[in-house]
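lol ok so funny story. i was supposed to be doing the assay writeup but got distracted and ended up predicting the structure for this chain instead. priorities right. anyway since i did it might as well share w the group, maybe its usefull for someone
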Amino acid sequence: MPRDDVIQTNFTGGELSPQIALGRVDIAKYNNGARRIENCVITVQGGAKRRPGTRYIAPTKTQSAPSRLVEFVFNRGQAYMLEMGETYVRFMRNRVPIMSGGVPYEVSSPYAWTQLASVNYVQKADTAFFTHESVYPYRLQRFSDSQWSLLPVPFITEPFEEQGHYPGGTLTLSSGGLGAATATSVGAFLTSDVGRYISYGGGYALITGYTDANVVSLNIISPFANTVLPDGSWNLEGSPQEDLAPANVGREGQPISLNSNFTYFESDKALTGFIGGHGTAIITVAGHGYVIGDTVQILVGTTTITGVVIIVQSSSVFGIASPEAEGGLYLSGVARRMQISAGTEVFRAADVGSFVRINGGLVRITSVPSTSTANGIVLRAMTAAVPAGPNAWTLERSAWSALRGYPRAVTIHRQRLLFGGSPGYPQNIWASAIQQYLSFQFGTNDDDAFRFELDGPRNSPIRHLAPARQLLVLTEADEMSLKGGQEKPITPTNIQKTDESTTGASAVRPVKVGNEMLFVQAAGRKIPALGYRFDVDGFSSPDRTVFASHITEPGITQLAHQKEPDSTLYAVRTDGQMAVCAYDVEQEVTAWSRWITLGRYESVATVPTQTGEDAYVTVLRNLNGVERRYIEVFDPEMLVDCGITGKSADGQATWTGLAHLEGQTVQAWADGAFLGDFVVNTGAVTLPRPAKSVQIGLGFTCLIEMLQPGANAKGSQVHVNEVVLRVLGTSAAVINGTPQEFRRFGPGLLDQPPPSYSGDVRSLELSDEIFKTNLVITQPYPLPFHLLDVIRRVTVN
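and the output, tada:
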């Protein structure tokens, strides 16, 4: 029976899925991985050490519902953690809640706790923008530590689209099948609705005639499933089918009126002859184009003559009747035809706040004094003050509403604020004017605002927008990139879309790690990394959980990334555990483990500090039969969870400040030694001896279950004779339930805490089980533990 030493020098493979752990000895991950890793930090250098404990900060405001943590970073010295809960936001800085008047400072929020998980946001300087598909976009502004404002975004011009009109009344159809029908709805119709379409569900009908405000005739093109269409759910598509004239070309900011009942003069035609007398006149105008009954105005010097055409002698000669036509012979002047519109009913009271595009200009309606007139403010001057016919002008409304929903995605990219993916426009992107985040007045200049429809291959809704080498667009089924041509920035007239991959994203907000965008796949169980790949000259999204697919199997609800002290990715699972990944692609380290505490992790977020980064968590804990939600922060100095620290120059035995753990069994670390378990009574514990420095909180156990030795995995019979742990700065370890001795003989060791040891710890296997190879290494005490290598001396039969 040959003997061999099996050494594992690192744990950069992390916890492997059963598909790998039960025999894939042919891949490198097997030699660097483990079957289970719990409550350990995998370092980029390869070791596995006890994870940080958490320092207790405060209870959440609403104990009955989850809250969400959101980072707000102005700079390293001014970094805040936001607690967003049921219709409120609270603020923390430097691990301390911000107070005002002796109570936590907060502002009102529009978000219910059920919406928090899918709220998206982007922050720049002292301002953040928040989006949710059911809530109008909000803007958060910081003025000081205890002065914040969270209000609807005050857009100068918000995005708008031609989306028709949703009348506020039930519509009854005489028939839902193809062909002619009538539609009845009280006070819903105007004469200009003839030529528009009614849509509901899959039904579609052209309005062919107007009876009165209550009844119109239809030609049903696509059948309706029902003949009664609910209030506010059926749409009058398109814009009113009537001529409309602006009072003048206007200028930006100027009031203006728009009228469907107007008088208008056509362009001037040169007058080459005029003979008047006895109320009639014969006029020569080459190619006049007039017909009997036209009203024509003649302008000769300071004289104006208006008359009705009574005769057309030729294409150049016509006659008019007018008392003013008496006179002599004129050889100069102009003639022009007067047009009087017949239209009257165009506007509704609901059109206030809408936009009219006409003659190259833009007007925002401020009032509707009658169905034929709308008053407004010029946002962009018109090129001409001439009437525009049906379909030559459009009536457009805000693209976002309670009926059509609000954008899901938001980001800032190259000095533009971008929104994307509302329920009503699932593949639309709206971009502000450059350096004007609140202006969405669309135009064609390079710095104008614009809108763009992806027209993706599967028409899936936009979930996230992310700035990178190019603007990345993550939808429920696809990943795409947007750019301008030839490495130029995106402009209204220069947008190129490239389909990159087909993974699909969930509502969980992505995080950027290096040059990759990590996101949760649409099903919630994979974490792909979307990044540029030089070899394919494009973006791909490899799965970063492929070797640990079980680690995210319950589903992921939130992601966060911590850069210091090591690159660490946090993923909150639906079962309350935390999937944690040591992530350094350049060093080929993608090592997953699981962090478990007494309770359930519900949210995680990170903020920088002056010396590193803090990872905050909200935790739901069942303490002595009572559910409590706490905000805590992972602290490398802490050895317990939900803990407190204390110092006493003279030493003391009773320590208070533990009311949040009332009735709970806690662990106590004092002056470098583990003193045992204690029960919190009236917010305090009493130690068996005075201590000068303590940590008291909930205990947790770090665990590493090794994979089977390679020979055993190949089917050979293997017996482990001896285990050697190579450790760094470690005070305690347990191998297969047997505590290991770290204290060494020597002078001056009495009454001292367990020493921190670096080196080899040996353990002989004395089991009667001949082929026992299971190896579980644990550390259940609030003491340091850092495992570098594991050496197993085995006998192979």
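The chain has six domains: 3-9+38-48+703-796, 53-158+402-619, 160-237, 245-262+343-398, 263-340, 641-698. DSSP finds three helices and 71 strands in the chain.
back to the writeup now i swear
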